[in-house]
Amino acid sequence: MISFIISLLALIIGYLIYGRFVERVFGPDNRPTPSVSMADGVDYITLPNWKVFMIQFLNIAGTGPIFGAIMGAWYGPASYLWIVFGCIFAGAVHDYFGGMLSVRHGGANLPELVGTYLGGRARKVMLLFSVILLMMVGVVFVYSPALILKDYVGSTFIWVIAIFAYYVLATMLPIDKIIGKFYPIFAFALLFMAVALMVVLFVKMPAIPEIWSKLDAANLNHPQSILGTESFFEKNSLFPCLFITIACGAISGFHGTQSPLMARCLGSEKMGRPIFYGSMITEGIVALIWATVSSYFFYYGGWREVVDANVVDQFMAQVGSDNGKSLIQFFSAPNVVENVCSGWLGIFGGILAVFGVVAAPITSGDTAFRSARLIIAEALHLEQKSVIKRFYIALPMFLAAIALLFWQMENPDGFNIIWQWFGWSNQTLAVFTLWTVTVYLVIRKKAFVISLIPALFMTAVCSTYIFISNQALALNHTLAYVLGMGCMGMAALWFFIWYYKQTKK
């Protein structure tokens, strides 16, 4: 628990000290924000600061800091380091500047910001890249809650239709009608669940791996030792897979598509730090809590404590009969959430877990489609005050999403394929945003190093993943690392050549 406490304090101190430094680098002032100067009653509406924070937090969080942290906990305490350093020095910087640049550019979407600072070609790439990513988010977050809900009533198909109907309404209606009213409630539930688990952690003070611990999965009751299959760590090397697996909670490109939604509702630039930087730190705390709970769950037999003994025996009996597939499902992120919440928080916790793993992805999906609508509208120069203009964009967008969804449902491994490529494209989106911020800071003659270092690091992560992943080129690890570092070196060379020319001007 010492590592958890230190990491928790580090995130809080990071917000208070480094967050204020980042704010000073940007320099917010008292100029009118887009919600005032461009108010349209649909997307540009000034909302109370607390409500903007709660919506921003839920928009960027969803189940990301929960599921990602649970899967990242398989790597042990290394997940703590990535959550803390990634969140403070990369993710929160990414979110703050992404949101504040949107405020300064009239609520502009991410592709427009990229085009402004990286050029027209980059804007076109980002336009296509962003819309595809947002479509994948919407599709993934339709299917996963439908699978859970059908266990209680109805069928997967019925729930898919119901969730899609809600998406259409949430995408078409003004932001204060559904999102502004219900999202703060969902965000509160997500925060309450995390705080309740943190209280239980401090009460129980369970034995968990520390950052300095030497982990041996075979001797720590790790599920991998029970499965007896190929080592998880051999199939998914820590670098770069950990940095793709834990996105929300450390750094996530998806946030760059969501921040402009709240940039259009912000009443004052000076609220940017608590809303954009602060919501990312809050998400990091949620991820840290789940990484800690999962470390105990995985490494010290915690799963035997929170799960009914009969259920454990039932799954253990199937390990040999189906090559461990049932046990792998048993240790999946949704099952970990449900088992931990019901085991530690009782019936109420179980209900809250179901609510969280259903409501959170749905809210991420509808804001993804809303962001896609606004990005397309901005590219086509279509005003969005008119309902019919919104419908022009929404209809083909949802038809394309339905086609992708049915492909996923027909393909046995469709969900995993979409999810893995979503993870990579999500972090690649963050790379574009960080380079955009870096160029902005150079032009403004500000401390560009605060975004340059994470931009170079994430460039190495995303390029190495393409070379090493079994879903992509699947090259030899050593060769993949060399090529990944080469891509980072080329990016650094490109930047410093441009920087030299810029300073000569």
What can you see in these coordinates?
The protein has a single domain, classed as Up-down Bundle (Amino acid/polyamine transporter I), CATH 1.20.1740.10. Helix content is 76%, strand content 0%. The protein is built from 23 helices and no strands. Helix 4 runs parallel beside helix 15 (272-299), helix 10 packs across helix 15 (272-299) and helix 19 (333-380) runs antiparallel to helix 20 (387-410). The protein is globular. The model is unreliable at 225-231 and 319-325 (pLDDT under 50).
Q: Brief overview, please?
A:
76% of the residues lie in helices and 0% in strands. The chain is an all-alpha fold.
- Structurally, how many domains make up the residues? 1
Principal-axis shape: globular
Q: Gyration radius, to the nearest Å?
A: 22 Å
Corresponding CATH architecture:
Up-down Bundle
Topology-level CATH name:
Amino acid/polyamine transporter I
User: What is the level 1 CATH name?
Assistant: Mainly Alpha
Query: Largest sheet at a glance?
Result: none
H/E order of the elements?
HHHHHHHHHHHHHHHHHHHHHHH
**How much of the polypeptide forms β-strand, as a percent range?**
under 5%
CATH homology-level superfamily: Amino acid/polyamine transporter I
Structural class: mainly alpha
- Find the count of extended strands (DSSP E, 2+ residues): 0
Compute the average pLDDT: 82
Helix content: over 70%
Low-confidence stretches: 225-231, 319-325
Number of helices: 23
State the separation between the terminal residues, measured CA to CA: 53 Å
